[in-house]
Amino acid sequence: MHDLTIAKKSDWEELHKRGLRVIVDPLIYRLGQIFLEGEHAAGDKKNVRWHAVEGDLGALVSFFDLIVLNDQLPAFNYTDTFDMGLNFDDSLGALVNRGDKTLVSVNVDYEPYMTAKQAAVEQLRSRMADGPFVGEATARDIITSLAAVEYQWEPSLLGLENELPNAKDVVVARFLGGVLVFAGYAQQTGAPHVLSPRRSRLVTAASIPADSADPAIEADVYKEVRRRLRDGGAGWREWDVPWTPSFLPYLLSRMNLYKEGPDILLERAKELRSRPAVKRYRELRESIASEDADRSTEAIKELTAAADIMTRELDSNRQELELTRSMFVEVLPKAVGVVVGVAGGGLVAGPPGAIAGGLAGLVGEEALKAVQRRLWGWVIDRLPFRSARKLLTRSVRAEHELSSNLGTKLRRVWETGPRKV
Fold this sequence. Notes:
The protein is α/β, with parallel strands linked by helices. Helix content is 50%, strand content 10%. It has helices at 13-17, 26-42, 46-54, 57-69, 92-96, 110-128, 136-148, 167-189, 197-207, 218-230, 248-253, 262-272, 276-288, 293-313, 318-321, 365-374, 399-416, and strands at 4-6, 23-24, 73-76, 103-108, 193-194, 236-240, 324-331, 341-343, 346-348, 388-395.
């Protein structure tokens, strides 16, 4: 059973009404699931599964940060991607929703899903004219990362796979198609599409495009994004979110690593939500993703002070808690020529929160081409448009440093495993 079903265009507004304000990349959930299950559940795949976690520790950091910063989060058709054949409540939901309803299972019905997929495939087909979807190094990184987490979703690309030269290109196309579908969901709700550091790097490299599987040169990729946005004119917003505490180091420092497992870590992450300083920080973090530009600007001014206050209350410091930095990128309706929205089939001037209209028929082809030249895959044409927003995450520390410090502690907790029920 699902908690919410999207059966028609107007149903996307239900996410906003229920306070589900971010669209989370499913790979973040998958890494969280592998960790919460513990080593014993991995059986003879334990080395492979831990290698997947260790290779993308930033996704696990993002998972626990999302848990602390949100009372509820949407998970879209999760068991179509992982754990096929299981109900959500027997899969990821069973691990996270103990004692509450942190993860809301959302089913996107056939019609809205196919609408999003058709738009994604059309966008991929148009990209093919420019050559390979991504460079060789990025393609290898995508294929390796998907295999490590046992990615099972192999959707039809509506015949596009028959036009691709080899199996590698099909895997990459399916990966990008899935990213575009989730970007389309975010575009229709106005919620930010939240990506972990590794996924942020891969998606952004594909958007420019650039061959950047190496974290050491990801700064060049983001530098190019900023240049393109500066030259883009009205309708583009981007800024670095003020320093962002990550809660995982704090939580681990309070764990008995040899007696307490990942379920205890999760419980303590949920408990952090009620701390007064954390609640204030949560409110401001939510405001920076507001569609109200003035509200976002004010929140940004206050966020650093709130982060410092929260860190002191947790008896910690910035050096311990700063593992990631975030960059917020938004394409507003003005960039694609949409001045008013469409609701119920008619043109209306909508306030923030109103579902904006379908791009097809409203936006000139040249306007869309201009947007796609800036950042491919940020706007999904032929889908209803509210805004196209991404919260990109970058690791502050080198991967080997994360692995030797944070990774060592996390593995000990993972090996201890959850309590037997």
